[in-house]
Design goal:
heterodimer, A: alpha+beta, 4 domains, seven-stranded antiparallel beta sheet, five-stranded antiparallel beta sheet, 23 strands, B: alpha+beta, four-stranded antiparallel beta sheet, three-stranded antiparallel beta sheet, 6 helices
């Protein structure tokens, strides 16, 4: 039979990427197996060889991560966990991943598909050792422009058989608002340095113009170039390793074994889902405020306040895989809380990969067991190519926590309590830009409260602080890294757990942490903002676990023109948490212009002795607080994690702490207080049906603030949620919401 | 550890288990499929009534057989009716919609949601006043139906023991029907 050659390429058709992508999809559609791989032939014939082969692939990506960070990297790239190196198939499906950002396996196929669909094989060509880069949410699956990808094709005799892939979170994204997560954005043109997949180098070497772009389009050009070299160094190592492995095992073995690896993991991940989940429907909701009214005067169409609604339904398909439908989530808007499906999947997959891709080869097998539905026009799938995605990570993390919440409810219902907890914790980054006294400009992001959240409460014990981070797969327990404490004007005045700051319950969530940053030597100019998860206007998720309270949002407190120097001179007693800043101000000890923000503050122009205090990383509680052991409440007071007055309000425990730190509980007063709290539930509640009738009247008379009505109008513009909303409130079809 | 016995599971349910045992459970390569049946045994022994527990929904709530019906029931004995209706509609509800009342359940005060935008809904059992759920949502938000399991499919496909009264009707949300009848 004559060999059919792809026009414009010196390759047989079946060796082109376009053909492979099409065949992969067709065979999966027909058989339900990856590339139609019904039998794991190589594994069955010689399992030792097969496993050795896979361990070589796995070793290649592990080695890339551990070495590349010490070849060249920004301090943040080296010290933080926010990176991953991976090996993917020719079609972009992940085969093996290093430690780190493993959910980015959802993004690699988006970039590669974009390049294939746009005939990159012909122009600019996809050749062995080429270097491609991207960070564009629309075309590459990046969650937000701070996550930057390097992709290197690995080809044997002209046929691409694999991609070496890498991503890390860079230090500064080059948006009008400095830092990693600009909040005050209108559209993609304010997201910073956004670039779709493009060839930036050849023969494992970047072009010189590429470095110039980083220097000209971001505020931390040198740092970002170092990270670019880090990603490429790791990809180069993977490139070399795969050539060696392919030569040793043979290209045909390589290609077939890769198909079997993904099919094998698809089956095992599905089995893990079926053996721990309960088919059904699990509803979830959460909210995020975008307060731009009065702050977008140039772009009038963005000059508004919006409550962003996230609504999800978790269920199972006929095989037992996960179906995650986001219908009812708000329509996209002129703010930074939008994203595109690839980046949304990167968020969603965080919880799913870590929960189900265990005891197997963690590969793209997970992708085939998840059907994520992002409705066109919503914040997760805007029907415009120009939506801003600068801060989508906040919304995709809340969305993935709703998925995890459903999963953990399933664990509880099925009896696997040891795996169940309240899966939520907030995070916060302090970011900004400035000009030093000598005229040197700079941009920065402080990630200390990004990598160390608290575990939520379990159904059998409290959550623990600084041990987890649902938003990144390498928790660094909230370390302040070298690059963070060297940011020029930010000095820690305090840094510790924030007492009482968690979702309370029979078992309380892990307590969050707080920092007080003291500005010194601010030079010619300093502007500070924040990026991160939902602020304290809302809770992290809308529903707590079985009577426990959901995690609180992020606290931000600013104090300008303070008397901190006087306090230091007097006795050195200065506030060490955001809560203490407010308490000192209430007592009159701290003076100045002090503001507690329940939403993202606009950029604060800061000078010497100003304070920026933040608290994040709190997690949710589990169960009825009145069922908490009194002894646990007393212990929380003793260790300084629960103020005495709040212990009485929340748990009815009446106790006092003496100067030696000994806590004494008044048993009789506690019994009386707890009885009173119980009685107040009776007095202050009503049958839900009566409440429903009253609320229905409010809904029908539109006696709800206008921004919230806008939110309901936005969500009910999707037919399924419109039906849900009208059914619940029993509204006629012609009723105008 | 290959299987979690009843004694250990009782400790887990009661919150009296050691961290070492929990770690061992988490290290199980494969979860023990028998766990569900052991769980039901442990839970059935805890409650004072005789209805057969089909599934645990919540710390206090269970889906149980009640004659030919499947209803939600609290461990105190309070019944919430058909499990296909969101049980929250049969609970008592307290709404915190002032800043002062919200600051009674969040600390420090800066962590409390904003009462101009959000409300805290607490759901109590009418029988024993246990706090069963908390929602923090804007006014006018529908109640969240947190868990609606497909019992027939679970018992048949996952556990291999189909329920005797299987019917496609068991996995139809009846919340709307209930509200329409009010």
């Amino acid at each position: 039979m004559a060999t059919v050659m792809k026009e414009g390429l010196r390759l047989p058709l079946e060796k082109t990427l376009a053909f492979k992508l099409s065949e992969r999809d067709t065979t999966y559609e027909e058989t339900g197996c990856y590339w139609g791989t019904k039998e794991l032939t190589l594994k069955d014939q010689d399992p030792i060889k097969y496993e050795q082969f896979f361990s070589r692939l796995q070793s290649a990506v592990f080695a890339a991560r551990e070495k590349a960070r010490y070849v060249a990297a920004s301090p943040g790239g080296r010290e933080m966990g926010e990176s991953v190196w991976a090996l993917a198939t020719a079609e972009g499906d992940t085969l093996a991943m290093s430690l780190g950002f493993i959910s980015h396996c959802a993004a690699f196929p988006v970039s590669i598909k974009h390049m294939i669909d746009n005939d990159f094989e012909e122009n600019p060509g996809i050749n062995d050792g080429d270097v491609f880069g991207t960070d564009d949410p629309l075309t590459s699956g990046a969650p937000h422009p701070g996550d930057t990808y390097t992709l290197v094709p690995i080809a044997v005799e002209g046929e691409v058989i694999a991609w070496a892939c890498s991503v890390n979170h860079i230090m500064e994204a080059g948006a009008p608002q400095a830092g990693s997560w600009p909040v005050f954005t209108v559209d993609t043109f304010m997201d910073g340095f956004v670039f779709p997949p493009m060839k930036t180098g050849e023969n494992l070497r970047q072009a010189k113009w590429w470095e110039t772009l980083w220097m000209r389009r971001t505020r931390a050009g040198a740092m970002n170039i170092l990270d670019d070299k880090m990603r490429l160094a790791g990809c180069s190592m993977i490139h070399g390793s795969i050539h060696e492995i392919a030569e040793e095992y043979g290209v045909e073995y390589y290609k077939q074994a890769c198909k079997e690896i993904i099919e094998e993991s698809r089956r095992m991940i599905l089995d893990n889902m079926r053996s721990t989940l309960i088919p059904g429907r699990y509803e979830g909701s959460c909210f995020r405020i975008s307060m731009l009214k009065g702050q977008q005067k140039i772009w009038k169409h963005a000059d508004k306040n919006e409550m962003v609604h996230v609504h999800t339904m978790f269920s199972q398909d006929e095989k037992g895989g996960i179906v995650f439908d986001t219908e009812g989530s708000s329509r996209w808007g002129y703010h930074g809380f939008n994203g595109y499906p690839g980046g949304s999947d990167v968020g969603l997959y965080l919880g799913i990969t870590t929960t189900f891709a265990h005891s197997c080869k963690a590969s793209a097998g997970v992708n085939m067991n998840v059907d994520s539905i992002y409705h066109e026009g919503s914040i997760y799938n805007p029907d415009t190519e120009f939506a801003s995605c600068a801060n989508i990570w906040a919304q995709s993390m809340q969305m993935q926590c709703l998925s995890s919440s459903a999963i953990h409810r399933n664990f509880f219902m099925r009896g696997y309590l040891e795996e169940a907890f309240a899966p939520e914790d907030s995070w916060d980054g302090v970011q900004g830009s400035g000009v030093l006294e000598d005229g040197t400009p700079y941009g920065f992001t402080n990630f200390e409260w990004v990598g160390g959240g608290a575990m939520g409460a379990y159904p059998f014990k409290d959550g623990t602080p600084c041990t987890w981070a649902q938003h990144t797969q390498l928790c660094n327990v909230g370390n302040s890294e070298e690059f963070e404490y060297l940011i020029p004007p930010l000095h820690h005045l305090g840094r510790k757990l924030e007492p009482g700051y968690c979702g309370h319950g029979k078992y309380r969530g892990g307590v969050g942490q707080s920092s007080v940053h003291w500005m010194q030597e601010t030079g010619q100019r300093l502007g500070v903002t924040r990026g991160g998860s939902a602020t304290s206007m809302t809770s992290y998720l809308a529903a707590g676990m079985n009577g426990g309270y959901p995690a609180p949002g992020v606290i931000t407190v600013t104090a300008l023109n303070t008397n901190i120097p006087d306090l230091i001179k007097a006795d050195g007693d200065t506030p060490t948490t955001a809560g203490e800043v407010l308490a000192y101000a209430e007592d009159g000890k701290l003076t100045g212009d002090i503001t507690s923000w329940k939403y993202d503050p606009p950029e604060q122009s800061m000078g010497d002795n100003d304070l920026w205090a933040n608290a994040a990383g709190a997690s949710g509680g589990w169960g009825d607080p009145l069922e908490r052991d009194n002894s646990s409440v007393v212990e929380d007071i003793r260790i300084g994690q629960l103020p005495e007055d709040f212990a009485k309000t929340m748990y009815g425990v009446v106790a006092s702490k003496d100067e030696d730190g000994k806590v004494t509980m008044d048993a009789a007063a506690t019994k009386q207080e707890q009885d009173a709290l119980c009685a107040s539930r009776k007095e202050n509640s009503k049958p839900a049906v009566d409440w429903w009738k009253e609320q229905k009247a409010k809904v029908e008379s539109h006696t709800i603030r206008e921004e919230l009505l806008d939110m309901y109008r936005s969500s009910t513009s999707f037919a399924g949620y419109d039906k849900h909303y009208r059914n619940f409130w029993q509204l006629d079809d012609d009723f105008e919401i | 550890m290959d299987i979690v016995d009843k004694g250990l599971l009782q400790q887990l349910v009661e919150g009296q288990i050691s961290d070492i045992d929990v770690d061992e459970m988490r290290r199980m390569t494969k979860k023990d499929p028998e766990r569900f049946w052991t769980y039901l045994d442990v839970l059935q022994e805890k409650v004072t009534w005789d209805n057969k527990i089909l599934m645990r929904l919540n710390d206090h709530l269970y889906i149980v057989m009640n004659g030919s019906e499947r209803i939600v029931k609290c461990d105190c004995g309070q019944e919430y009716g058909d499990y296909r209706v969101n049980w929250k509609l049969h609970a008592d509800i307290q709404v915190r919609d002032t800043q002062d009342s919200m600051e009674k359940v969040y600390y420090p005060s800066a962590a409390a949601p904003d009462a101009d935008w959000m409300e805290v809904r607490e759901f109590y059992c009418p029988g024993c006043t246990a706090q069963l759920a908390v929602e923090i949502v804007p006014p006018g938000y529908p109640l969240i139906f947190e868990s609606f399991p497909d019992l027939d499919r679970f018992y048949r496909e996952m556990m291999g023991k189909p329920l005797a009264d299987e019917s496609p009707d068991w996995f139809k949300d009846k919340t709307t029907d209930f509200l329409a009848a009010l």
